[in-house]
């Protein structure tokens, strides 16, 4: 159940020329600035547009092959799509919106499955409502449920959060995370927002001006000093929740050490955390008597100076971190590749995203 | 309704009957024409022109053309009579046909506006959910256009109540068969001392027209409020 795509399409002055694949499970993010061709790709995957040339295989089915004149129209492709503007049918109740694709699915899921998804997305209280009476966040959840109940082979999310304010986005992101963790289908997530991509993506396809600049794991494309997306992220670490500590904090374990964080979640659950580069401090010797709860032994792997600032890349076990400090501090500490240091991180700075 | 004479009531009911049948029978064709004109095809300008012709032609000319086409001794009319035993000329059914033709452009325009105002994205969403062309037409496009359809039908109905020239030319002015409200007003004016009756019937016409126009406006506003979602 994976996706392979090679698309060449020209509209006006814009040429889209991309090739990428998305693994069977997990989230592949199409990441890039507006105008990079993200939406054109998603429309081609869904079958809403027919590329000039290309080949698309979804879960083993060739849905497009221009050489062999194969083109499966959108209505037969079974790609669930969540649009930025939700596109709920205004003349139907939430319930009928949800069941629209289910009623047309060749192998519809059972009613217990419907009930489970409705519960998972918190839609019970909305079922009888009309779309016009929903908030932006509620609409996004209904659109997500509607796409999933059609039992798609592939879920396409075209900037589903872009039209929501920051608060609503924080409301929807945990639903998406939960979905990523339980749904066994490839998800393609279009976004230009680093925080969404960092939080959700397993794989990132970096796009610029209609071309794939790089593709790889979220860690390779978003962390470190020389990542191709140019994003500066302190750390992106997949952890496992060990459990609550006696002092009330939560202990997280990762390949390279342990972190004490604020939010509590179920022990044993995996949790991806982010740390801003500005929130990581560096000490040459192990600090004593400080408030910060996390002191990680690490090694400097690379440095990048600007006039006033220094970005210091560190490795702590398998984790890659970047600390942004002043150029003055970096010089005073005589940091160089290979220097053994201690990275200091406040528990509050360990961001699980929805805190 | 005791301020109307029995003859006037007959005219009123006949008007309502003719207009209802005219609009009801032509609505499916109007929907088809609106859907057709919403697409691109060769000869679209010509079809558009033909659909709108009754709007700009003198109604008397429309009535005269119908008389030539469908009179019992004319080509098409004679065939209808011979094969199906259908006579339209001098009958209320002929009046309904006339009304349908005259008010057809009103319907097509209203329905086209409703179709064009639709968010095309909803059709795309329906496609990704597995809905084919006809499925989308009956479950998305038409239900969403329903208020526009209704508004078009009501406008056409109101316009049909006022049709005079084409009806009197094609099916004449027969009491109880083809004498609709406007024809009754005209007849009253031909008689000495008929001004009071003409005034009553005119007031009634104004009232009906207003009522239907307000209903059409209300439907359109309600639809707009719904689609804001």
Give the DSSP E fraction of chain A (strand runs of 2 or more residues). 35-45%
Stretches with pLDDT under 50, minimum 5 residues of chain B: none
Q: Estimate the helix proportion of chain A, in percent.
A: 10-25%
What is the CATH third-level topology name of chain B? MetI-like fold
Largest sheet of chain B: none
CATH class of the largest domain in chain A: Alpha Beta
Number of domains of chain A: 2
Which architecture of chain B would the CATH scheme give at its second level? Answer: Orthogonal Bundle
> What's the β-strand tally of chain A?
20
Count of helical segments of chain B? 10
The dominant shape of chain A is globular
Largest sheet of chain A: 6 strands, mixed
Mean pLDDT of chain A: 91
Portion of residues within helices of chain B: over 70%
Low-confidence stretches of chain A: none
Describe what this molecule looks like in 3D.
The complex is a heterodimer of chains A (355) and B (229). Chain A has 355 residues and is of the alpha+beta class. Chain A has 2 domains: 3-222, P-loop containing nucleotide triphosphate hydrolases (Rossmann fold), CATH 3.40.50; 235-349, OB fold (Dihydrolipoamide Acetyltransferase, E2P) (Beta Barrel). Chain A is built from 9 helices and 20 strands. Chain A has a 6-stranded mixed beta sheet, sandwiched between helices. In chain A, strands 2-1-4-5-6 form a 5-stranded antiparallel beta sheet, with helices on one face. A 5-stranded antiparallel beta sheet of chain A has the order 16-20-17-18-19. In chain A, a hairpin with a 4-residue loop joins β5 (61-65) and β6. In chain A, α5 (136-149) runs parallel beside α6. By secondary structure, chain B is mainly alpha-helical. Chain B has one domain: MetI-like (MetI-like fold, Orthogonal Bundle), CATH 1.10.3720. Chain B contains 10 helices and no strands. Chain B has helices at 6-37, 44-56, 59-70, 75-84, 92-116, 120-128, 133-161, 165-171, 181-190, 195-227. In chain B, α1 packs antiparallel against α7, α5 packs antiparallel against α8 (165-171) and α7 runs antiparallel to α10 (195-227). The model of chain B has no long low-confidence stretch (mean pLDDT 89). Classes of the chains: A alpha+beta (355), B mainly alpha (229). The interface between A and B is medium-sized, with 32 and 22 residues.
């Amino acid at each position: 159940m994976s996706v392979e795509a090679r698309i060449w399409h020209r509209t006006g002055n814009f040429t889209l020329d991309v090739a990428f694949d998305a693994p069977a499970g997990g989230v592949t993010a199409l990441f890039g600035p507006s105008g990079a061709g993200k939406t054109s790709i998603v429309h081609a995957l869904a079958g809403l547009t027919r590329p000039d040339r290309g080949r698309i295989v979804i879960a083993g089915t060739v849905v497009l092959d221009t050489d062999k004149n194969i083109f499966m129209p959108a209505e037969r492709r079974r790609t669930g799509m969540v649009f930025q503007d939700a596109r709920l049918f205004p003349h139907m109740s939430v319930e009928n919106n949800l069941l629209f694709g289910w009623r047309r699915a060749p192998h519809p899921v059972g009613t217990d499955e419907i009930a489970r998804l409705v519960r998972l997305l918190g839609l019970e209280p909305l079922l009888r409502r009309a779309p016009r009476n929903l908030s932006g966040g509620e609409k996004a959840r209904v659109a997500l449920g509607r796409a999933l109940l059609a039992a798609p082979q592939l879920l396409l999310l075209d900037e589903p959060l872009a039209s929501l304010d920051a608060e609503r986005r924080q409301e929807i992101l945990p639903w998406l995370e939960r979905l990523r963790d339980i749904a066994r289908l490839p998800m393609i997530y279009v976004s230009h927002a680093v925080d969404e991509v960092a939080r959700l993506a397993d794989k990132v396809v970096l796009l610029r001006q209609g071309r794939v600049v790089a593709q790889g794991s979220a860690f390779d494309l978003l962390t470190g000093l020389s990542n191709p997306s140019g994003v500066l992220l302190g750390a992106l670490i997949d952890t496992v929740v060990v459990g609550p500590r006696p002092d009330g904090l939560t202990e997280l374990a990762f390949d390279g050490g342990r972190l004490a964080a604020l939010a509590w979640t179920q022990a044993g659950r995996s949790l991806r955390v982010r740390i801003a580069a500005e929130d990581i401090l560096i000490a040459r010797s192990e600090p004593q008597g400080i408030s910060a709860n996390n002191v990680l032994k690490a090694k400097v792997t690379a440095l990048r100076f600007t006039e006033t600032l220094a970005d210091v890349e560190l490795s702590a076990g398998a984790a890659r971190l970047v600390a942004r400090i002043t150029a003055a501090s970096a010089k005073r500490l005589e940091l160089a590749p290979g220097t053994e240091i201690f990275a200091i991180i406040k528990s509050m700075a360990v961001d699980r995203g929805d805190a | 309704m005791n301020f109307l004479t029995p003859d006037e009531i007959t005219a009123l009911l006949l008007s309502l009957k003719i207009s209802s049948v005219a609009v009801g029978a032509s609505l499916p064709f109007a929907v088809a024409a609106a859907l057709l004109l919403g697409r691109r095809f060769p000869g679209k300008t010509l079809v558009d022109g033909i659909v709108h012709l009754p709007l700009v032609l003198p109604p008397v000319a429309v009535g005269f053309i119908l008389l030539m086409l469908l009179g019992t001794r004319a080509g098409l009319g004679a065939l209808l009579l011979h094969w199906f035993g259908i006579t339209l000329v001098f009958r209320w059914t002929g009046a309904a046909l006339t009304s349908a033709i005259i008010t057809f452009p009103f319907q097509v325009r209203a329905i086209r506006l409703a179709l064009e105002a639709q968010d095309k994205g909803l059709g795309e969403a329906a496609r990704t959910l597995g809905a084919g062309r006809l499925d989308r037409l009956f479950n998305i496009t038409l239900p969403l256009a329903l208020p526009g359809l209704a508004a078009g039908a009501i406008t056409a109905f109101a316009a049909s109540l006022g049709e005079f020239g084409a009806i009197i030319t094609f099916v004449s002015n027969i009491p109880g068969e083809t004498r609709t409200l406007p024809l009754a007003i005209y007849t009253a004016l031909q008689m000495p001392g008929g001004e009071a009756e003409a005034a009553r019937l005119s007031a009634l016409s104004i009232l009906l027209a207003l009522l239907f126009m307000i209903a059409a406006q209300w439907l359109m506003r309600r639809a707009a409020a719904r689609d804001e979602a």
